[in-house]
Amino acid sequence: MLRYIARRLLLLIPVILGVALITFTMLYFSPGDPAQMTLGEQAGAEQLEQFRELHGLNDGFFVRFFNYVKNAVLHQDLGLSYRNRQSVFAEVALRFPTTLKLAGLGVLVAVAMGIPIGIISATKQYSLFDSISMIFALVGVSMPNFWQGMLMIIFFSVYLGWFPPSGFTNFNQMVLPSLTIGTSTAAIITRMTRSSMLEVIRQDYIRTARAKGQKESKVITKHALGNAMIPIVTVIGLQFGYLLGGAVLTESIFAIPGVGRLMVDAIKMKDFPIVQGGVLFIAVTFSLVNLIVDILYAFLDPRVRSQYR
Question: What is the largest CA-CA distance in the chain?
């Protein structure tokens, strides 16, 4: 197991380099002048040239990318923000816990809603509850987060006044963003749980457990759900990574000071180091979550655990 974890950690290196290269390339060839966007229209030619020289914008593509990777690897330096000359690592690290908390709450909402509904739908296939839950799951998958967030603000904040429309410091402020980012994931988890459970409950060992007189609740929770969890855990892990990136729109709608909102503001101002740093933080977290999911397989399924011995 330790050898497998070490190998997976080594594989993170080319993944992070690939993400850095793609992000750097997209920003490098994007239209607009970072110096002009940062200093404003009134800046003179000499000021603009000094800014470009200071931040290495006059260098070629490969030189800039090599310097960026070298500083990141050797000095753990992701550069300085064009706007305020602050460390990118410090700026992103300050806001990343908020984004992580939002994504974590979204996953909790999704799991709390998706797994129970999926189990009930599978055990009561083609019932009225199954039909209604699948309709809501389809709507949840299809509904964009930004549109759902605005609707929830209008209904729960403007009309009912139950929850504040912005912020992320107390429980009341966390409800609407967590529901917004978690419901679409809940729909995906519901469908996967239902599909996986339907496949498992038709197996011979489930019929044998029922024939032995075990309670239906024990058959479902112990025998069926335990063997159906691997695809469900896979989806949960992947969706957690997607929520880290999907939090960009949710943070913008609810004015949450996270990495997503920081990146949106940086994109508008052509603050390339902030965008690159935010993407790298999300990519590393996504990769680590996938590693944790793979390790969980060994605890959920003895067949997987035996491969590591």
Answer: 86
Set out the domains of the chain in order of their start, with CATH numbers. 11-75 (no CATH), 94-307 (1.10.3720.10)
Round to whole Å and give the CA distance between 275 and 297: 34
67: left (phi over 0), alpha (psi -120 to 50) or beta: alpha
Is the pLDDT at 277 greater than 80? The verdict is yes
Percent of the chain with pLDDT over 90: 0
| Environment class of 35 (CB within 10 Å of its CB; exposed 0-12, middle 13-18, buried 19+) | buried
CA 108 to CA 273: how far, in whole Å? 32
- In degrees and rounded to multiples of 5, residue 87 shows phi and psi of -65, 130
Average pLDDT, whole number, for the chain? 81
CA pair distance 109, 26, nearest whole angstrom: 34
Single pTM value for the model: 0.79
Question: Hey, CA dihedral for 186, 188, 194, 200, is it positive or negative?
Answer: negative
Q: Half-sphere exposure of residue 57, counting CA atoms within 13 Å on the CB side?
A: 22
pLDDT tens, position by position, 184-200: 888 888 888 888 888 88
- What tens digit of pLDDT does each residue of 281-299 get? 888 888 888 778 777 776 7
